[in-house]
Design goal:
The protein is α/β, with parallel strands linked by helices and 959 residues long. Helix content is 48%, strand content 13%.
């Protein structure tokens, strides 16, 4: 096969736009690029400035270029007998057909392949499929992105890499892919069929690399063969070694392995404090700022303690991201420097693991809701099985449709056949559980900690020592898990998986099996299933009505971004039910009764089928149905608890967003105070709990956290250590904090014209002296929107791009990547950008904080906590609002300096930090940057002076 890789640059992306550059790379049968054709094309219209900005192609480049006729005359002969390839090929193909038509040639009728499809299928774990990102991932030279010849060559080299990778796939996997696309009548189907025939003619050089089971090629063997880390070693490697000796040896090995390794005082202190807490059976609160290296600060003592005492240590993180970072960065490093074998296992919530039985069933039945997308995801996963050792969904990049597909194949406790499952010995969830069982240290997340508590400690292996990283989130996660959180789609998924229509759903699947069975009771069971359909349709209709009704009760929240989960919020008070509540209660009652009927009938059918001796081959299906009925029962009880509104210790509220309206509905019923539960589950029961985060103290005191987490008793009984670690950075030299003291003030979440125009002008002036590289943090989306357009206009002539959350498309990580990729840009973000965003180095030089980050006082949970404090004669503003805002402010400040080389400026535009009696708590909580306040007019000259001094210092050091 011969391939032609095509790329066009055009004056826009409308059919009427014109081609300004052509790039074509020819790949021969031996997979080498034999020819590259490229040419500018003279268009009949002017090139828009934004296209010049994107591609670098100017009017000068094209003014003497050949016209389209000339270029097509040279290009058409190269397209004979080739398979056309492109990255997002539909775009280039449409322009090609139109150009052929305009210049009098016949349309192209050959095969067309898209490298996007190949990358998704063959490299299912790539984080991005953008050409630039993939090129750097594969180390493919791509000097001039968005220029046709460079794009075409990069695409050709990536396509060759895909082809080589496909040849390396096991024959069985290619057969699977060929089967999957066979019914599609697509060029992909033709391609995989051709590849399969090619592979069948070859000798398979490495058949033993994979495990073959039930017609799938897997990367994993039976998990039962996984042995404990020090199996066969009789003596304890640490029996004669103190913690100091252990750490000395580790540091020596780290120095040998990492030439740039520097000991960090704060990290050493933390390691000793964690160790002391373990040895003395005490709890520890330890604040470790950016740069401490806190993961090694707790992992090394955890490994030492667990191996020496033969006692498992549990580590919990708030985000899956941090779990992944520990798995990919810290654990591999420790495996090399710890002088004996140990095992640290990552164990997530069950829904993160693929259920092979469900996946096999889905593929065999071609049970695809949206065939085109689902076939692609299925192909991705068939290839992924040859690569993954964990079966963890975080490894997959499934695109937007992936979530729905994953839900149907994820592992669940209620639909698990356990040892009776044909896949049991290969099962990813049981592998992870077994690994956690034999591991020394288990890394889980806050969510799973609480799910384990709710499941009566059946999920995690038992533990006495716990490290909680990102501990400032613990209270929040506890509330969500110990209370109720029910989404519109949670209920809908349960209903549609039971019954979507007469052909789709687990009940129709069961009915189909029974119909073909020879059992005389089968027809009775079939009519019982038929009678359930009506009830399920009724439940779905009433749930839609109830969701719509609840959605209309909610007022719009002024300061939230469109599509924010909490854009619409309404708190519901037990003693003040809305006047429409009777209607809601009536709909809920109809749902309760109809679902009860479905659950009773379903359980009856399942138990009767089980009692029959005939094997209908439906065991997996019946387990799935039984699991779905349990889900329905839980949702039914949760909804009843919510609609009753009768518990004074619970805060009830509903949330939604404007883009999906009632389909975005979430209902919450959360305990007002979880400190007593945290105390009874953790601080009373466990020998030692270590809590760490960059932000635990307020005004150099841990009192707020001690109260929120239920640690007062431990503190009064001397069972609690607290520690604030010194920062490894020199903030006085590395950060300058500037406050313009005469800046206009603002009431509420919207600025008046004077405030907005002053802010826009000041942000623009600052961005010009810092050459972009600026993150602006807002507390309200409305204000972000007020600033976005005028700021964009002011900075466009300076060549500085403005990127706005909610204004430009993309989630947080996409926007952050765009910001890092463009040297001169300003990123505007709201709540989710205040923490967890990591932009080290040059990409971020200045941080602007527009308002102090107080939570909206009308958020239901904040409101309920404030009312409780008022009843206790305490000041809710000082006891709750200020500490929460200080912790958030410290998180925001922490975005700026991420390493000992980073330097930068923070501008705080909120003058309350100087004028109010509580402002000092914000300033005193920071890790010691140089702080200055001045009139607004002096601010930009001062910033400029500081940057010049810092640059001179940098260059004199370089000399």
């Amino acid at each position: 096969m011969k391939y032609a890789v095509l790329d066009f640059e055009t004056t826009g992306n409308q059919p009427s736009d014109e081609i300004i550059q052509v790039g074509l790379a020819i790949i021969d049968e031996d997979l080498s690029v034999s020819k590259i054709y490229s040419s500018y094309v003279k268009p009949n219209v002017a090139i828009p400035p934004f296209i010049t900005g994107l591609t670098g192609i100017t009017e000068d480049d094209v003014k003497d270029a050949p016209d389209l006729d000339m270029v097509m005359m040279e290009m058409v002969p190269l397209l004979n007998d080739v398979v056309l390839v492109g990255h997002n090929v539909a775009f280039d193909f449409n322009y090609l057909q139109s150009a052929l038509d305009k210049t009098g040639y016949l349309p192209f009728t050959g095969r067309i392949l898209d490298t996007m499809d190949f990358l998704k299928i063959i490299f299912p774990s790539l984080t991005s499929y953008q050409l630039g990102q993939v090129s750097s991932e594969f180390e493919v030279q791509h000097d001039r992105p968005h220029q046709a010849d460079s794009d075409a060559l990069a695409t050709a080299l990536i396509f060759i890499k895909c082809l080589e990778e496909i040849f390396g796939l096991p024959l069985l996997t290619l057969q699977r892919l060929s089967d999957l696309f066979a019914g599609e009548d697509s060029d992909l189907g033709w391609f995989f069929d051709a590849m399969l025939q090619e592979k069948e003619r070859q000798f398979d050089a490495n058949p033993n690399v994979f495990t073959y089971y039930r017609q799938y090629a897997l990367q994993v063997d039976d998990w039962m063969e996984m042995i404990p880390p020090r199996y066969g070693i009789d003596s304890n490697p640490l029996s004669m070694m103190t913690f100091e000796q252990f750490m000395d040896e580790i540091r020596e090995r780290l120095r040998a392995k990492l030439p740039q390794y520097e000991e960090r005082e704060a990290q050493n202190i933390m390691q000793n404090e964690v160790m002391q807490a373990f040895q003395e059976d005490k709890h520890l609160l330890v604040e470790a700022g950016t740069g401490t290296g806190k993961s090694l600060g707790y992992l090394l003592p955890a490994i030492y303690h667990s191996v020496k005492q033969d006692e498992k240590v549990m580590v919990s993180t708030h985000t899956i991201n941090l779990q992944e970072q520990l798995r990919e960065r810290d654990i591999p490093l420790l495996t090399e420097v710890v002088p004996f074998p140990f095992r640290a296992a990552v164990f997530k919530g069950r829904q993160h693991y693929l259920c092979l039985r469900k996946f096999e069933h889905k593929i065999n039945r071609r049970d695809f809701a949206t065939p085109k997308e689902d076939v692609m995801i299925a192909a991705q996963m068939i290839v992924w099985l040859t690569q993954t050792e964990t079966g963890d969904d975080e490894e997959l990049n499934m695109g937007n449709r992936g979530g729905d597909f994953w839900e149907t194949v994820a592992s669940e406790s209620d639909s698990c056949l356990g040892r009776a499952c044909p896949w049991f010995r290969k099962c990813y969830y049981h592998r992870a559980k077994h690994e956690a069982g034999i591991a020394d240290v288990v890394i889980t997340n806050h969510s799973k900690l609480f799910t384990d508590i709710q499941a009566g400690h059946q999920l995690l292996p038992s533990y006495e020592r716990l490290v909680i990283d990102e501990a400032h989130h613990l209270e929040d996660v506890a509330g969500k898990h110990l209370g109720l959180q029910l989404k519109y789609f949670t209920v809908v998924h349960t209903l549609t998986r039971l019954y979507k229509d007469s052909k789709t759903g687990q009940l129709p699947n069961l009915r189909g099996l029974l119909q073909s069975a020879k059992n005389e009771k089968a027809s009775g069971w079939c009519s019982l299933i038929d009678s359930m359909y009506h009830s399920l349709i009724e439940v779905k209709e009433n749930w839609d009505k109830l969701s719509e009704m609840l959605f209309t009760l909610m007022p719009d929240r002024s300061d939230a971004a469109p599509g924010d989960p909490g854009q619409f919020v309404l708190r519901l008070l037990p003693n003040k039910k809305p006047k429409e509540w009777d209607v809601a209660a009536d709909l809920e009652n109809q749902i309760y009764v109809a679902l009860g009927d479905v659950i009773r009938k379903g359980e009856r059918i399942l138990s009767e089928i089980k009692d029959e001796s005939d094997d209908f081959g439906a065991e997996g299906l019946m387990t799935d149905i039984s699991g779905l009925l349990k889900d329905a029962a839980n949702e039914r009880e949760g909804l009843r608890f919510f609609i009753k509104l009768d518990d004074d210790e619970t805060v009830y509220w509903i949330e939604g967003n404007g883009s999906y309206r009632s389909r975005s509905l979430q209902i919450f019923a959360v305990p007002i105070d979880v400190s007593a539960q945290l105390k009874s589950y953790f601080f009373d029961k466990k020998k030692s709990v270590v809590m760490t985060s960059a932000t635990l103290s307020v005004d150099k005191s841990f009192q707020y956290m001690i109260e929120q987490l239920g640690l007062e008793e431990a503190a009064s009984e001397d069972r609690l250590f607290t520690s604030m670690l010194p920062s490894p950075f020199n903030y006085r030299d590395q950060a300058l904090l500037v406050i313009p003291r005469d800046f206009p003030s603002v009431k509420g979440s919207v600025g008046d014209d004077h405030f907005v125009s002053t802010l826009v002008q000041s942000l623009a002036d600052t961005a010009i002296v810092t050459r972009g590289r600026m993150l602006v943090l807002f507390t309200s989306y409305r204000m972000l929107r007020q600033v976005y357009d005028p700021l964009k206009e002011l900075l466009s002539s300076e060549g500085i791009t403005v990127i706005g959350q909610g204004m430009d498309s993309g989630n947080r990580s996409k926007l952050t990547r765009r910001f890092q990729g463009q040297s001169a840009s300003v990123l505007l973000g709201t709540s989710s950008f205040w923490e967890g965003v990591d932009i080290p180095g040059e990409a971020l030089t200045s941080l602007a904080i527009v308002r102090l980050p107080f939570q909206p006082p009308n958020h239901p949970l904040i409101e309920a906590k404030s009312e409780r404090l008022q009843r206790e004669k305490k000041n809710p503003f000082m006891k709750l609002s200020v500490p929460q805002a200080v912790i958030r402010f410290k998180q925001g400040f922490g975005r700026l300096v991420r390493s000992s080389q980073d330097r930068g400026i923070v501008v705080v535009y909120d003058t309350r930090i100087l004028e109010s009696y509580y402002g000092k708590y914000f300033l005193y909580s920071l890790p010691g940057p140089k702080m200055e306040h001045m009139p607004l007019g002096q601010m930009v000259p001062r910033i400029s002076e500081w940057l010049i001094a810092e640059e001179q210092e940098g260059s004199s050091l370089a000399d």
